[in-house]
Amino acid sequence: xxxxxxxxxxxxxxxxxSNAYRALPMFFPNALKPEMAVxxxxxxxxxxxxxxxxxxxxxxxxxxxxxxRDDIDIIDINAPSDAHKEIALAAAKAGKHIFCxxxxxxxxQDAREMLTAAEEAGIKHMTGFNYRFSPAVQLVKKLVTSGxxxxxxxxxxxxxxxxxxxxxxPLVWRLQKDIAGSGSHGDLGAHLIDLAHYLVGDLDEVIGxxxxxxxxxxxxxxxxxxSAKGSKDGPRGEVTVDDATLFLARFSNGALGSFEATRxxxxxxxxxxxxxxxxxxxxRFDFERxxxxxxxxxxxxxxxxxxxxxxxxxxxxxxxxxxxxPGHTIGFEHTFIxxxxxxxxxxxxxxxxxxxxxxGVKCQAVLEAVDRSIEERRWVSISEM
Amino acid sequence: xxxxxxxxxxxxxxxxxSNAYRALPMFFPNALKPEMAVxxxxxxxxxxxxxxxxxxxxxxxxxxxxxxRDDIDIIDINAPSDAHKEIALAAAKAGKHIFCxxxxxxxxQDAREMLTAAEEAGIKHMTGFNYRFSPAVQLVKKLVTSGxxxxxxxxxxxxxxxxxxxxxxPLVWRLQKDIAGSGSHGDLGAHLIDLAHYLVGDLDEVIGxxxxxxxxxxxxxxxxxxSAKGSKDGPRGEVTVDDATLFLARFSNGALGSFEATRxxxxxxxxxxxxxxxxxxxxRFDFERxxxxxxxxxxxxxxxxxxxxxxxxxxxxxxxxxxxxPGHTIGFEHTFIxxxxxxxxxxxxxxxxxxxxxxGVKCQAVLEAVDRSIEERRWVSISEM
Amino acid sequence: xxxxxxxxxxxxxxxxxSNAYRALPMFFPNALKPEMAVxxxxxxxxxxxxxxxxxxxxxxxxxxxxxxRDDIDIIDINAPSDAHKEIALAAAKAGKHIFCxxxxxxxxQDAREMLTAAEEAGIKHMTGFNYRFSPAVQLVKKLVTSGxxxxxxxxxxxxxxxxxxxxxxPLVWRLQKDIAGSGSHGDLGAHLIDLAHYLVGDLDEVIGxxxxxxxxxxxxxxxxxxSAKGSKDGPRGEVTVDDATLFLARFSNGALGSFEATRxxxxxxxxxxxxxxxxxxxxRFDFERxxxxxxxxxxxxxxxxxxxxxxxxxxxxxxxxxxxxPGHTIGFEHTFIxxxxxxxxxxxxxxxxxxxxxxGVKCQAVLEAVDRSIEERRWVSISEM
Amino acid sequence: xxxxxxxxxxxxxxxxxSNAYRALPMFFPNALKPEMAVxxxxxxxxxxxxxxxxxxxxxxxxxxxxxxRDDIDIIDINAPSDAHKEIALAAAKAGKHIFCxxxxxxxxQDAREMLTAAEEAGIKHMTGFNYRFSPAVQLVKKLVTSGxxxxxxxxxxxxxxxxxxxxxxPLVWRLQKDIAGSGSHGDLGAHLIDLAHYLVGDLDEVIGxxxxxxxxxxxxxxxxxxSAKGSKDGPRGEVTVDDATLFLARFSNGALGSFEATRxxxxxxxxxxxxxxxxxxxxRFDFERxxxxxxxxxxxxxxxxxxxxxxxxxxxxxxxxxxxxPGHTIGFEHTFIxxxxxxxxxxxxxxxxxxxxxxGVKCQAVLEAVDRSIEERRWVSISEM
Lengths: 385, 385, 385, 385
Hints:
The structure is a homotetramer.
Chain A lengths: L1 E7 L3 H16 L5 E8 L3 H11 L3 E3 L2 H6 L5 E4 L6 H10 L3 E4 L7 H14 L3 E3 L7 H11 L6 E9 L16 H4 L3 H16 L3 E9 L4 E3 L1 E5 L2 E4 L5 E3 L5 E8 L4 E7 L8 E8 L2 E6 L5 E6 L8 E6 L22 H15 L8 H20 L3 E2 L4
Helix pairs in contact in A: 1-9, 4-5, 5-10, 8-10
C-alpha cells in the first residue's frame, strides 16, 4: 500500500518536504511509501519546474482541483501561512489526511476551526513542528518521560537568528503581519513553545515583551529561502511584525519557563537552543549542533560530574540505525524525513500522528496569550484563550 | 603612602579580600599599598585564627572599637548582609573610606541611607561587584563603549547554581530572608543587574517571576563557603527566600533584557553568563571560563564570520601585563585583586571608585522593582522605586 | 544528456552512493543527471532488494555482464577493496568512466596499474575521498590557496574511532588483511593523507609506528556498516591488520606533519580532525561538527584575536546555496552528493575530476611508505616508492 | 617549624614562586610555612627591587654567599637553565633541600650528576614540573591509577605556542642553545614528557623530527616573560634551537605516544593539551581551560555515552577545599602553590617529593633520546641513554 500525496507549496518547505518524500522509502523501507503524485502552486511555470526538479509526477496550479481528485490520499500544505486555513478546511471536507506546516493558522480561532474540521472529517492531521524529530530531541523526550531527569524545575529556550539585522534588508513577506501572521514570535518562538509542550508539558500563564527594532524597510524585489533582494534607495514599507519577542511562563507542573525569539542576534544564523534542569539532571540542546545533546546526571560519581556531550548517532538513538555508522552525522533536512515517517506510520497504524492539529492549536493559544500579555501589559492565563 | 585597612568579616569574602590585599602590592607595585591592619569578627577565637592565617596584624571582636580607631583609613565590610548598614553608617560618620560587599543592604531604603551618609561624609565608597573586574568583562566594556558592537539590541544573562538542589541541603543563612535579604535574586541576580548597568545602561521597567521549589529544609548545623551540614531527620525550618527569580526588562536605550538567577540548575556549579547582541556584533561570557570572551563582528569577511574565542590574557587586555604570559590564565580570586586596585587607585586619584554605593543603590532599586513586579503581577518602572 | 550508472556494491557505500545519485538532480539541477540504471552484487536476492529499496532500474549479479553492456556510461566500484583492481581494469578497457571507492587498491602496484589503464583508455576516473567535499574543508582549501593562512608550518591530523574497542568485537572483514588490505591505516589514515595532499601538498618522507592491540577475535557471524555480531565463546581468528597507525612526515614545502589513525580511542565514534598552522593563521576541523570550521588570523585586531567558529552554511560557502538557509546544517551523506557533482561536472566539462586515480595512487604510495618505514624502522622517502 | 628559603632567580619563575610562598600558609595553613628569607640575582638593583616587591626579607647578589649561610633550609633555583647545575651541586654539598625549575640541566649527563649529588647529600630534591599540580591533572592521575580508564592504549600530547611566529621577533635567550639548552622541545615538550611519565609510565623508544623555521632573528634588546623588544632592521643572529619538535614513542606498557611541541602554532598562546585513551575510558585536558577535564567512560548507559566536562572545583577534587566554592576557578599560578605544598609536605614527612630530580633526569633522557633519534634518523631506545 502506498499513499498518494498532493503538495501545495514549492519553495523552502516544499523543497524540504519533497526531499523527505524521496528519501523515506530508501531509509525506512518498512514504512508506507509516499507517492509524489502532484505538486501545486499558483505560478504554472514555476511549479512545473519544481515538479521536474523535485520529482513529482504532475504539476497543478489550482489547489481546489487538486483536492477534488479521488486519487490523492494526503494533502501537504506548505503554502504561505495566510492560505493554510482555507485549504485545510477544504481538504478535510474532501476526506484527505492533512499535513500542515506551522504556524497552523494566522489566529487561534482559525486554528481551532481547522482542528474541528479535521476531527469531524475523521482524518489524520499533523502540524509541522519538525524539530521534535531530531534524534537528540527524541533522547531528551526519553530522558524526561522515563524520569531520568527527575522533577523539572526550569526550561529556558532561545531561537536566535540574524538575517534581518541589516536595516536595509528588504521587507519580505515574513515581515508582513497580514501574510505571516507574526514575526520572530510565530516563526521561531512557535518552535520553542512546541518543544516546551512536548518535553515539559502545558503552560499555565505567560507574560511577554516584544519590539520591532527597524520599523521601515525597502520593499522587497525577490525572496528565496531566507535571503532576498531589494533596493536600499527605493521606496520603503512598514514592518508590521515583531523583530523579537521574549516571555516568561509558568508550567502547570510548577516549572519556570523563559523564551526568547529574535532575528537581531548578530552571529546567530539559526541558534535554536534550550536547556532543561530537573531534580536529577539537566540537558542542553542547540540545533546548530543537532547531532549532539549535553546531558548531566546528579547520580554520577562525585569526582566526575559534568555535562556529557552525547553524539546521538549510536544504535540506541532514535532513527540512527536507518542512517550511517556512529559518529556520522545527519542534518536539518532529516528532521522532515522523520516527521513524515511519523505521519505515514500514524496512517498505517490508524492513530493520530504527533504533533497533530491539536498541538498546533495549543501552540497558537500560547502565541496569542503572549501577544495579549504584551498588549495588556499583564500576566495572561492560557485558559483565558 | 599606604592605606591601613580594618576588615569586618572573615569567612568566604574575608578570605577573598585578604588574599587580594596581600597580592596587590606584588602584582601592582605602583598602586597604593593596603596595610592589613585589623580583622574583626564577633567570635574572638575564630577571628584570631583568621588574622594569623590571612596575615592581619591585629584581631578585634568589636567593630565599633575598630571604627573608633584613628589609625584606620579603610573599613572593608564583608559581614553578613544584615549588618552592612549599621557598620557603614558608623564608618562614614568616622570618615573612613568604605568598601562594602554586595548586596549593599537588605533594602533599597537602607542602601539609600548608606549612600547619603557616604556622600555627606565625603569619603570614597565602593560596592563589591567583583565580576566587573574580569579581564574579559573589561574587554566587553571597551567594545561597547567604543561602539564596536554598535547599537545594543539584546542583553540576556543567567546565573545558574545547583548547591541547594538536594532537598535535604540544610537551611543555611543564605536561605533566610531576615539575614540574607533575598535568595538567588539578591545573591546572583544582583551581579547580573550590575553587569547590565555597567555594560548596557539603565533599565526602564521590569517584570519578574520567582519560586521557592523546596519550602522547608533541615536546620543547618554548620556552614562554610557554600557547603553546609545538617541532619536530614532533624527539625526543619521554612525557606524564606526565592530559589529562582527570572525577569524581563526594557533598557532606557531600547535594548531588551532577560535575566535568570537560580540555585536549581543541575550541573551548574556557578555559571555566571551573559550575551550581548548589537547591530555590529555580539559578545558572550561565562565566568566558568572567565579568561575567555566570545566575540562576533558583522564586519568580518563574509566567508569567515563566526564567534571568536578570545583568551583575554594578551598584553592588550586589562590587567594582563601584571600577571603571566599570554595563555596563562587567572581565576576567581583575581577579580578581587583588580577590584581593590580600582579602590586604592580611586583614593589615590581622589575620585569615586566604580562601582560606588550609587551603583549598589541602583542595583537594589532593580532588585526591589522586580520583587514588587512579582508581588503585584505587573510591570514596574524603576522610576517608581 | 544524462549519464547511465552501473554500480558494483550495495552495502554501506552503495547506500551512500545511491542516495547521492538520487539527490543530485534535485539539489544541483544544472548538473548532468546520473541515471540509476543497474546495481550489481554477487548475492542475487540481496542486490534485487537493494535495487528496489535504493531506486535502481535493474539488478545484476555478474559484474562482467554489467561492464559488457553498451548502455552504461559510468562504473561505480564500491565492492570490497580486494575486488577493485580487476573490475577497474575491465571497466577501463570497456571505455567506461570509473568512480572507485578508496582505497583504490590493495597495493601501490595495483593502484598504479589501474591509473595506467584508465589513462590509456582516456576515461574519467575518480577516487572516493569524500571528506574533501565538506563545505568547511572547501573553505580551508580556499584559505590555503589564496594565501590567507600564509606559509604552512604544521599539519596535524587524527582519525579516531572506537568501534572495535571491545576485545570481543568479532573479526569482521575490515580486520582481515587479505580483504581490507590494511586496518586503521588504510581505512582512516588514507583520508587524512588525502586531505594533507589536497590542503598542504606532497610529502617527502615519513616514519611510522603501528600496533594491533587485540590480536585474536571471535569469528564474525554477520556485519552491517561498522556493527557486527559474533559469539564471544566461539572460535577465534587472528587480526591481521593494524588497530592503530601513527606517523610523522615532512612535506615538500617544509611543513611538518603528524598523523594518527586508530580504532581504539574510547569515546570517539568517528573523530576525523585536523589542524593547520600557517604564518598568517590557523584552521581546525572536526568531521563530527562538519558544518563548522575554526579559523584564526594573525591580522585580527590585537584585543580580539581568537579562533572563530565559522558555520559554513552561508551563501559564500561551497554548495550552501543548493541546500538550506544559513545555520541549517547538512550531514555525512552530503559529502557524497558533492563528490558526484564533481564527477559529473568533470565529465560534462571534459576534464579529469579531482581526486582522480592519480590521487588514489599518491595516497597509496604514502600508505606503503609508512608501512615500509615501520617494517624497516627507518625514515622512508616517498620517492623510493 | 618553618622553612627558610633562599631563591636564586627573580624573573618569570621567580615571581611565580614568590607568589606561591606567600599564598601557601594562607590557603594550606597545616603545611610547613616557607619563610621568604633571601632572594638572589646578579643585578643588585633589580634583585633589591624584586625583594621589596615580592616580599623577601633580604636580597643577595652572590649565590655562593647565599648557599654558605647557615640559616637557609631550601635553595630554590629558577635562574637561567645554564646555571642550574653548578648551583645545585653546591647547594647539595651544603645540605640544603633543593627545588629546581625544569629543565633540570642542559644535558642528561649534568642532570645525572645533580641527582647523584642530591642523593649523596641526603637532601630533598624536586623538579619544577608544575602542570602535574593542576586539580584536573590530579584527577587524571586518580582515574588512571585506580584503573577507571582500564589499560592505556594511547597518549597524545601537544604544547602549542605562537609567541615567536613573527619572523622579526628578537633572538631572546630562549632561542639560544648555549643558555636554554633546547627550544620548544626542552621548554614545552619537557612538560609533556613529564606528564606522560606521571600519567602513563616509562617510554621504551622514540623517534623524532624537528625544525627551525626562522633561522635568523634580530638581536634582542630586552626580554620580560615571553615578550621582548628588538629592532627588525638591526643586526641578526642565528637561532640555535628548534622551533618545533615532534616525536612518536612506545611506552613500556604497550601504549603508543605522540608528542608535539611548537612555537609556530598561530592562535595558540599556550595550549598544553593531552588525551589518554584506555580500554575503559578516555580523558582530555587543555591547560588553557585548566579547571576542566573531559572524561569518557565506556560503562555509561549506552544512550548517554559522551565526554563529560568536569569542572575540577568540587570538594572531591584535589586542593579544591583550600580554595573557593565549586565553579569558582583557579589559574596558572595555583599550580606553583600546590607544587610547593608537595615540596614542604615531603620535607615534613621526610620523604622525597614528586617529581624529584630523578624525574628530571628521566625527562632529560627522553629529550636527549629524541634529539639523538633526529640526528641519527633512527629509533632510539631510552635504555641507550
